[in-house]
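In the previous chapter we treated chains in isolation. Here, by contrast, the input contains three separate entities that must be folded as one system, with a combined length of 1052 residues.
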Amino acid sequence: MKNKLLHLPAFAVSALLAATAATAQERVVHVYNWSDYIDESVLEDFTKETGIKVVYDVFDSNEIVETKLLAGGSGYDVVVPTGPFLARQIQAGVFQKLDKSKLPNLSNMWPQITERLAKYDPGNEYAVNYMWGTTGIGYNVDKVKAALGDVPVDSWDVLFKPENAEKLASCGINILDASDETFAIGMNYVGKDPDSKETADLEAGAEVYMNIRPHVKSFNSSAYIDELANGDTCISMGWSGDVLQAKARAEEAGNGVNVEYVIPKEGTYMWFDNLAIPADAKNVDEAHEFINYLMKPEVIAKASNYVQYANGNLASQEFLDKEVLENPAVYPPQETVSKLFTISPYGPREQRVLNRLWTQIKTGT
Amino acid sequence: MAKSLGPVKRKFEPWNDPTAQPFIRFENITKKYGDFIAVSNLSLDIYEREFFSLLGPSGCGKTTLMRMLAGFEEPTEGRILLQGNDISGVPPYRRPTNMMFQSYALFPHMTVEKNIAFGLEQDKLSKGEIEGRVQEMLKLVKLEEFAKRKPGQLSGGQRQRVALARSLAKRPKVLLLDEPLGALDRKLREETQFELMDIQHTLGLTFLIVTHDQEEAMTVSDRIAVMDKGVIVQVDTPAEIYEAPNSRYVADFIGDINIMEGTVVAPSGDVSPQPVVTLDCDGLIVAVEQDCAAKHGDRVAFAIRPEKVRISPDQPADTSVNAAYGEVWDIGYLGDFSVFLVSLSDGRIVRAAQANVSRLVDRPITFGDMVWLSWPRDAGLVLTR
Amino acid sequence: MAEISTTSHSGPARWLVVAVPYLWLLLFFAAPFLIILKISLSDTAIAMPPYTPVFDSFGTLGNFVSQLDLENYFFLAEDALYIQSYLSSLRMAFISTFLLLVIGYPMALAMARAPSRWRPTLVMLVILPFWTSFLIRVYAWIGILKPEGLLTVFLQTIGLMGPDEQVQVYRTDIAVFIGIVYSYLPFMVLPLYSALEKMDGTLLEAANDLGCPPLKAFWKITFPLSMPGVIAGSLICFIPIAGEFVIPDLLGGPDTLMIGKTLWTEFFGNRDWPLASAVAVLLLLVLVVPIMIFQKQQQKVG
């Protein structure tokens, strides 16, 4: 299950990696992916088909991944960073170029998505898209209705208007602990360019969160799935697939919690999580085989059906469940897509301003 | 009584005065720890200004008795009266007794001065008063120049003095001393014993001392209570304890003594004018000038101190009674005394001590010599217990 | 002759024995500290590792030194967040250490006064929690303290709380204090116990005998004599608590400000190694320097 426990014992997993690496000839690939981001049977199938053992480790924040990658010697063969982080990491020389001759399934990819990804990876040399999605609002339908009455849940107003936040405070508000996205959304909400790196604009974005800070219960990017599902949190800024997983878990538990996901009408952040190979990866061939496998239409469709995120593989769409393909929260209609925005990476100085503001927001100082 | 038992130390015997009120009274005290009976139905009176010793081997209950007086233990049964007041239930910090601990129990984080002042500070005396009393005590135990030292920087003897000064500082009605000299070497111990007596005499306090060292008890005490297995076997002056022990236990515990088991052949009262008991100790006929309740045929013991046995190569005038013949089996030279171990014909060993009154001896008795042992009728003792 | 041969024999051996702790310090304290110090004088960069200059070879030593700057330290001084984090950590550490003393002392005292045949068992019980992972124990506290957790259920069951009320402790400083006190208690109890256990019980009897009631005797005798244990326990707890990260992260709220968390954010969240290193260097100075001065003073007194 996904929770913060997972990112702490990562060192234990690394130790395990070292141990397995020592056992000689066995083919192995070390994968570092987001938590709750795959159907585990996909990994088993891969091992069955190729004989390559998958050592799978998970994270819940891009920052952790970047810290490990920049330190070097992470021991991973495949990692899954999000767009702006990918761009910066490429710049830092973290990744190696993909050997496209080993990736025949590239032909299955969705050109529209590949093109958008090129913003972060010019020429699509280093990465292929795994999943993509939006950052919207996940909420407990009944509790929000009880707190706000007839206020329609279709706008960031529900969360960002202090009077609304105040009413929701007692049932639990969570904000994603992902500063770049939250600032982009905040700046967009107050009418600034979401991709701005100007200090004044960032401060305007921070203002949105400072105004509701007293009413926010937590800032996390993984525990909120369970908290939404069991009713501890009634509204959260969240990633589309995560919220849908929460909805599924609540239905499975039959606890009467009714979770929904909405892309607010002001538009929101669209993100891409991508497969890339670290420059110091030890099992490069296996990494390519793994990525190529994930580009098989039926395989990635299985993953999408499970995690409820859209993927960047056009050919997979015929294998997708109808509820997934036709769910506007997963594959939004064109008019919604036009309101989605992406952001470019922050430079080190801008990053410091951003971090400082974000820390200020979180600590409420 | 015309005769006296031993030297008279001082004219002080309130225990023989029927009008005297006891200062401390233990009344039918029993102390149990679970099934173990440490003190058993014990009664004892101690008088004001008395130097009193509780003497006995470890585990005889003497320390328990003292701790009950100090208030660290409560009696299971019975009560303790101090100047006529029942002090049961009074916590130790409200009792007018002070104790000098065997381990000294000096506070290691305080200077000598502070240790001595500790009890006075509890009484909320003025600073000047405390100061004065501390100086007085330091002077009394001759430790003036060590006032600022901590106990860790003192020798054993100095620590003992600090402990004494600390327990005396409050001028307690009763000073309790638990094996106070045990940790000192012999010479220092002897010196200190006399100092203790001096201090007790000067300050006019009542001292109760617990010790297993009979010599120490003999030296310092007005009276001694010899204890065994939770009961008092005998309470008397040191001279009486030594010269007239009331039992084999006391006789054996105090000093060196020859004890021979025997049967009464002629009880006292049979012979006049002096009552004399005659015993048959396995063939050795012994006559003792003593008024004794033992009847004809009773099994009793004859006890005689070695220094009261005369040893000589010459045959005494009367060998039928109070005389024995044997071979010198071992000699212990003690400087002031020589102790001869004489083996009788049936293998019994009798000890005889002889003061070495002159440096040169004409006919020294030596190993293997056949000698005569003899003693007068008032030298030995019949023990019925 | 014999004497000479033994001294020449034991000379290098003794030197080695003395050298081991210094080697240890050099290898595991001085060297890492110098690395951190160096990084703290660097600049962030988009690179692997994410800072410049990186010390590569001796040839570039002069060049390297000229590139170092104190900018990160100025940044720390300018921004109230860091000062507040330090102060807040010290405050948390002070309060926690005080609570640990207040709770740990009676425990240690009870253990030291228990019949001697029970003591090994009692010591064992204090150490027992170490047999499970620290992390799992802190997680268990989440289960207890969260609003719908065991504590709420318990209080509701015994009727101290209505069915609609919940314990609002999780993700507050109170939860952090609970977690810290729980986790560090053995580190406080054991030094106190060993100091108290060594104490001669007749000292208290002597104090009693001299007219000092038990409670006063505790403050006059027991407490001063247990000072080495109090100091050891307090230092062993205070230092790591001031830099504690895991417990405030798991049990504290987003507004729980502690330098360990700030450092973690700088390093992992912001990937700002130089600044994180500067925070670490200052933390060391803030904690170690006063303690060293204190130790020196103690040595003089002793």
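The first helix of chain B runs from residue 62 to 70. The CA atoms of residues 112 and 147 of chain B lie 5 Å apart. Compare these points with the single-chain example from earlier in the chapter.
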